[in-house]
Design a protein that fits this description.
The strands form three sheets. A six-stranded mixed beta sheet has the order 1-2-3-6-12-7. Strands 10-9-8-11 form a four-stranded mixed beta sheet. It has four helices and twelve strands. It has one domain: paralog of FGE (formylglycine-generating enzyme). By secondary structure, the protein is of the alpha+beta class. The protein is globular, with a radius of gyration of 18 Å.
Length: about 325
């Protein structure tokens, strides 16, 4: 396969961005549908995942080991999404696989990340609908692909932030979007390869255009359909781009090295990570960065959430 130069990569990236945006406006810009009754259905792969823990009180999180899976009760019934406890540690952030690297993925640098928890799956319609009904918000459009355990799409950055604030109120813990550093640290899961499974594409590992044998899926899939990364996180590569807290900056020249969000730069646009169902395997690499306007609601973008853990707590890194 011919490798793209940085200039060619930039041209391809712009063409895909323009094409995907026009497609969304033409085909998937229908008004949000009316709220549907929430069900207690869980992700399709729940039965195959590790045993989870229901936290009865915040202090009990100190008893958990790294990569433990837990939920928390909501004040008005139900539970939070499944969360995976991610250990603190250092990693090399940015593109590590020349000549893949785009200008916005360099320079790579060492980043220290404090312990946090991240949702095992992208936030689904089942999760988001509970929030929308409780907050008297419109249910996002599903592009006629289905709801349930598919990732919530047509959700703006502001919508995603509102969801995390609601979840914080319901649980008494602090939930938010991941920082870009937290996202990449969790996505890489200790690897330094193009993908969390290695450097080769390897078909049937993710939902993207060219990631699978046979006809392209050309829409989102239910979360958990593909194997998780080494840290038990599903759909890190592909399915939908995922919002992060960070403002868009054109490279990592002045980026934070402590795992916090980059809150300066072009904050009208926010960083998204992970790629989506419409892009090629090149764009679902662990290092790939992209952006959307914080106001955008499109079928290519969803989100994953983080629960803050006391940064002074200690645990063994993996």
């Amino acid at each position: 396969m011919k490798r793209l130069s940085r200039t060619e990569y930039g041209h391809v990236r712009r063409r895909i961005f323009i094409a995907s945006s026009l497609s969304v406006l033409i085909f998937w810009s229908a008004a949000a549908t009316l709220s549907q009754e929430h069900t207690d259905t869980v992700e399709a792969s729940d039965s195959d995942s590790d045993e989870e823990i229901l936290l009865e009180e915040d202090a009990s999180i100190e008893q958990l080991n790294p990569l433990s899976i837990f939920r928390e009760n909501l004040e008005h019934g139900g539970t939070s999404p499944k969360m995976v406890l991610i250990p603190s540690g250092k990693f090399e952030m940015g593109c590590l696989t020349e000549p893949d690297c785009s200008d916005d993925e360099i320079p790579s640098r060492e980043v220290q990340v404090s312990r946090f928890a991240v949702s095992q799956f992208e936030i689904t319609f089942d999760h988001y609908n509970v929030f929308a009904k409780a907050s008297l918000r419109s249910i996002p459009d599903d592009s006629n692909w289905g709801r349930g355990s598919r990732p919530a799409i047509h959700v703006s950055w502001h919508d995603a932030v509102a969801y995390t604030k609601w979840l914080s109120t319901e649980t008494g813990a602090t939930y938010r979007l991941p920082t870009e550093a937290e996202w990449e640290y969790a996505a890489r899961a200790g690897t330094d390869t193009r993908y969390s499974w290695g450097d080769d594409v390897q078909y049937n590992k993710a939902n993207c255009d060219g990631c699978n044998t046979g006809k392209a899926v050309e829409q989102t899939t239910e979360v958990g359909k593909f194997e998780p990364n080494p840290w038990k996180l599903y759909d890190i590569h592909g399915n939908v781009w995922e919002w992060t807290l960070d403002c868009w900056n054109r490279n990592f020249g002045a980026a934070p090295t402590d795992g916090t969000a980059w809150t300066s730069g072009d904050c009208a646009r926010r960083v998204v990570r992970g790629g989506s169902w419409i892009v090629s395997p090149f764009f679902v690499r662990s290092a790939t960065r992209h952006f959307y306007s914080a106001e955008n609601r499109v079928s290519l973008v969803g989100f994953r959430i983080v629960r803050e853990i006391d940064p002074k707590s200690t645990d063994e890194s993996i």
